[in-house]
Amino acid sequence: MKFRGKIIDPHCMKQFYSIVIILSKLCRNVVLRLSSTKLYLIALNESNSNQISVWSVLDQQSFFKDYDMIGETESNEILFSLPIDMLASSLSSAKQTNLKTLKMKLTDKLSPCLTIELDLESQVSSKQLCTHDIPVTVILPKDWSEYKEPTIPAHNISVVMPSIRVVRHIVDKMKRIGPRLMVSLDASGKMVLGVSNLSATVDTHFIDLEIVSVQNSTDKENKYSTIVDIKKFSQFLNCETLNLSKILCHVVEGLLLHCSIEEDEYVLHYFLSGIDD
After folding, report:
1. pLDDT at 241 (0 to 100)
2. With 80 as the cut, is the pLDDT of residue 236 above it?
3. Structure confidence by residue, pLDDT tens digits, 47-98
4. Distance between CA 125 and CA 145 in Å, rounded?
5. pLDDT top residue among 161 and 216
6. Contact present, 22 and 234 (Cβ < 8 Å)
C-alpha cells in the first residue's frame, strides 16, 4: 500500500484547501478513498452512520502534477479516515502566495500517517519546508461497502440556487428564530425559505430561478418542500470560499435536501435528510 501526490499549481492548491475547509465545517472525520484516477472525500452522517452526508470526487489529473499509488485488492484502492480539522490546519499555508508545492504521502511513523509537506519560498533561505503528520486509520476492504457511491433518489425538482452569499446572510438571521428551515421549490422557479416559532413566521422568496429539472413542469403551482436542520444548511453555505459560478439545489419531497457543486475538476454533494415538522 503506497500513496504519494504533489500539487504545484497555485489555483489547485487553493481549491483543494477550500474544499477541505468546507468539509471541516460539515463533519469531524473524513474518509479519503484513493484510486488510480480519483481522490474521494467522504463523510458519513454523524447521526446515522449508514448514510453518507458528503460525497466529493476530485479528478487527480486536474489537481496533481505527480500521483503515485498502489492499493489493495483488484480494485487498486486505499481507504483511510482522519480528523478533518487536522487536515485543514496542516493545509492552511496553501492560501499563501509563497507556497511552491504541496505534497501528500502515506507514511509509517509508529502508526500510519498522512504526511503533508509544504515547500515555501523564504526570504531568509532558498527553501522552507513545513511538515505535518496526521494520524490515520486504515479501513479494511471488508468495510469498504460503507463508502461506495451513494444512490441518489429521483429529485422532484432541481434549481440553480440564488447567490450563496445572499442565502447565507438570510439563513444566518433565520437561525435566531427557529432550528428548522423549510425549503420549498416550485416549477415557476421560486424558492421559499421559511422558519417559524410560537410567535412569528418568516419567509424569504427568491423568484425566476433557473430550473434544471422538475417532475411536472406543466403545473407551475406544484410545490415540493422538505424541512431540514437550519444549522447544518448554514454550515454548507460557507462553500462560497470556492468562488462558484453556481450551486444546484434538489428537493425530494419531505425526505431530502441535496445540494451539489459540479465543476470540471471536482464534484461535491451534500445530503441533508428531511426531519418531521
Report:
1. 66
2. yes
3. 766 789 999 999 999 999 999 999 988 889 999 999 999 999 999 877 777 7
4. 48
5. 161
6. no
CB-based contact 252:226 (threshold 8 Å): yes
Residue whose C-alpha cell is 475547509: 21
Q: How many residues does the chain have?
A: 277
Bridging pattern class, strands 191-196 and 201-206: antiparallel
Please give the mean pLDDT across all residues of the chain. 90
Specify which residues 203 forms β-bridges with: 194
- The closest alpha carbon to 275, from 226, 231, 212, belongs to 226
As a whole number, mean pLDDT of residues 116-120 equals 92
Contact 209, 248 (CB under 8 A): no
- Using alpha carbons, list the distances in angstroms from residue 246 to 108, 157, 158, 208, 226: 41, 16, 13, 15, 21
- Which domains are assigned to the chain? 2-146 (3.70.10.10), 157-273 (3.70.10.10)
